[in-house]
Design a protein that fits this description.
386 residues; mainly alpha; Growth Hormone, Chain: A
Length: 386
């Protein structure tokens, strides 16, 4: 391990908790924001997911920038922008101003997440890389666990107060600026071979396994935000409406993911990437089907734990799988596309499942999610046999 990577690791772990929690922290407050702004359930979903669209749009730019100038500057920029844009929610009462602030937040998240992934891929190797990526994912999960609890608690006082948590990005950006030396990609003999125009597209076409990786990332993000947007409203329907109690469901799911990610290195030593994908899809099919069919809170808690376990396995697997598939000189761009697809999945969740809600209701949303997981499981099983 390089000397500077010890400092880098702690900054990464501290910052990683903020990226995924950019929307999940507000999950216990969906119904409060809906009522305060006077919008419908699908519209309030866009407050939770607009940042995801802008992460998707700006991640390729951040990937190219990271390949050119290294990871540090985009990382620091992203943290500070995250803090400023997210913290502005303390003062905003207009739906459209919220949408604008979430868009800017998305640009910050894109810079943070792409540069963070490239740091890990370039600094660590082999089993250590899997371990550190698992720690990063565990930090993501802990953020999803702790920040919704904080958000739910603060939300009992004022629905504006949880936005103060985003301000943590500013001091973290300052710490990154003064403690992390420039982290540049490694030199490689393949750099000369990938300079020509269109080389990234050609590489994607010739490495079709990347489309499987991207598809799994899209599905993971899509289903995460099925929970973020619809679970609190489903719980309200069965008379669990206190924001703190709702936050506990998200917390136990995130805790399950965090604990799973901590041992991801051991899981990967025993399972191939494809077997991890199949296991996760099976867990999710059971989880969403359970939620759609029951009204008992404890069983729903078991279901969200199953979902969290799956997230804890798939999230560290996909970026390392993609990173190991490509030359070093592609890592910023290929992982940025992975991030773009993830956040397109988040943004697409209310778009795709909003009509399902209109036709089939909340139970139908979770049943369709379960059927989707089972279908993709069968498709991946077929591809594995080939």
């Amino acid at each position: 391990m390089k000397v500077y990577s010890r400092f880098t690791l702690w900054i990464i772990i501290a910052s990683a908790s903020l990226t995924v929690a950019a929307g999940a922290m507000l999950s216990p407050l969906v119904h409060l924001v809906r009522d305060a702004l006077g919008v419908d359930p699908a519209s309030v979903g866009f407050i939770m997911t607009t940042h995801a669209l802008f992460v998707a749009l700006f991640s390729p730019l951040m990937g190219s920038l990271t390949d050119k100038i290294g990871a540090k500057k985009p990382f620091v920029f992203g943290l500070v922008l995250y803090g400023l844009a997210g913290g502005s929610g303390l003062f905003i009462d207009s739906y459209w101003l919220f949408i604008a602030s979430r868009a800017i937040l998305g640009i910050g998240v894109a810079a943070m997440a792409v540069s963070m992934t490239v740091m890990i891929l370039n600094i660590y190797e082999g089993a250590e890389r899997n371990k550190v990526m698992g720690w990063r994912t565990s930090a993501n999960s802990l953020g999803i666990m702790i920040l919704p609890l904080i958000g739910g608690t603060l939300g009992t006082l004022s629905w504006h107060l949880p936005f103060a948590v985003y301000l943590l990005g500013i001091p973290l950006g300052f710490l990154a600026l003064i403690t992390i030396p420039g982290v540049h990609r490694e030199k490689s003999q393949d750099i000369r071979d990938v300079r020509e125009d269109g080389s990234v597209l050609k590489f994607l076409i010739n490495n079709r396994i990347l489309f499987v990786i991207y598809g799994l990332m899209f599905l993971s993000a899509l289903l995460l935000y099925v929970n973020v947007v619809f679970l609190s409203q489903f719980l309200e329907k069965i008379d669990i409406s206190n924001p703190f109690y709702i936050s506990l469901f998200f917390a136990v799911s995130a805790l399950a993911g965090a604990l799973t990610s901590l041992v991801y290195g051991k899981i990967k030593s025993r399972l191939s990437y494809k077997m991890i994908g199949l296991t996760v899809l099976a867990l999710w099919a059971v989880a969403f089907t359970l939620i759609s069919q029951v009204t008992f809170g404890l069983i729903i808690a078991v279901a969200v734990v199953l979902f969290g376990i799956g997230r804890g396995m798939i999230q560290p697997a996909l970026p390392v799988w993609a990173g190991e598939t490509v030359p070093v000189s592609f890592r910023g761009r290929i992982t940025s596309y992975l991030l773009s697809i993830a956040f397109i999945g988040q943004f697409s969740s209310p778009v795709l499942f909003g009509p399902v809600f209109s036709v089939l209701g909340l139970n139908g949303v979770f049943l369709v999610a379960g059927v989707l997981c089972a279908t993709v499981f069968l498709l991946l099983l077929f591809l594995k046999s080939k």
